[in-house]
Amino acid sequence: MKKAKIFYGWWIVLATNIICMLGFGTWLYAFGTFFEPMTVEFGWSRAQTSGAASFRSVEGGIAGPIVGWLVDKFGARNVIRGGAIISGLGFMAMATVNSLLGFYLIYGILISIGMSAMLYIPAFVVIARWFSRRLTFAVAMLAMGAGIGGFICTPLVAILISNFGWRAAFLFLGIIIWIVVLPLSFVVHNNPEDIGLSRDNEPVEEPVAESVPTRLDNRADRLEVLVQPDCTLKGAFRTHTFWILAATFFFQSMAHNVIFVHGVISLTDKGIGYEKAAFVIGLLTLVSLIGRIVLGFLGDFMDKRYLISLAYVMLGSGVLVLANSNSMLEVYIFIALFGIGFGATVPLMAAMRAEYFGRAYLGRIQGFMSPIVMLAGAIGPVTAGYLFDTTGSYQIAFTVVGLLPFVGGVIILFSRPAILPGEPVLAPA
Hints:
Elements: H1 8-29, H2 31-42, H3 46-74, H4 76-94, H5 100-118, H6 120-130, H7 135-164, H8 166-184, E1 211-215, E2 222-227, H9 233-237, H10 240-269, H11 274-298, H12 304-323, H13 328-357, H14 362-391, H15 395-411, E3 424-428
Antiparallel strand pairs: 1-2, 2-3
């Protein structure tokens, strides 16, 4: 088989990168820019406004297993396309919101359903099917999109809101999602075999027999060499690694959900201007590219557990610095620590799931982790908002969520791979 000059899998990485750039940039990272103008217009408390993020997380937990099943059943391309249609419609509908309930239903549920189908679950699964040897690096390249999206979209949305109002900003974002994402979905092919290629563009190997009987001269009994299949969803549930990864992701999710929901307004509380505060959060996501690329690259050559542990320590340290910051220098230290740590976890965790459980059922396994980690996104932002409403400060909230990643950094070290495809095991015939 003749190798293409540029492996087509990299075009899929580029397409999903842009999709994630726009999706995460508008839906997740820019959420904080809408926080202040909507609380001012409607008189909502910070806990009430944060409730939309909680609904977003609950929806993600419910939709995750469904999206994972849909990806395995119908392919990433169709799921991404459907998600884009729903997300664009939801953003445009946000321009009509006049009540807290409407905000929850449209932003917290409708848009979130679309984004669950459009973003990481289908993107991670399809890339895991196209790459093996360079999987971690490919995922790191994908994850760059989210970081760039935060850097571009957060300050851009703040400018749109300042000049045209938050309703017009939502309308604009919905149109852009349709214009950009729908054409890009055609670039995505679910498997390399669909277009006559192979994973990593390597020559196609001869299939291995499922069972090869053999007799050992020094034994009385006959043994078989069994080729183990990829870990099923049921099999993953039975491993302690599944629950370790879910727990560590929970701790990470608590931290990043609180920061991306309350980050902009917490900085304005410290006397930083609105657009500058939005730029700070955008800069944070740009800095996350360092973690996504550098540690993502190292993940192909080093034990991912140690890299993730390091990333969690940096992430937690960044939040603790922000909790006690009194100057822009400390804010920049927060950006560096949190940005690199948060960025690194994205490709490393995704690649670890594929490495530990195989690829055949990856969509379902990843999807079923979502209900576990949804609790973090549901509890974290609204609790932080309540603590602010009660104490007048984010000190307690930021300190608690800053300590949690340290716990995750310890327990991740106890994870171990499940039986991977192609691993030979001797068993009695």
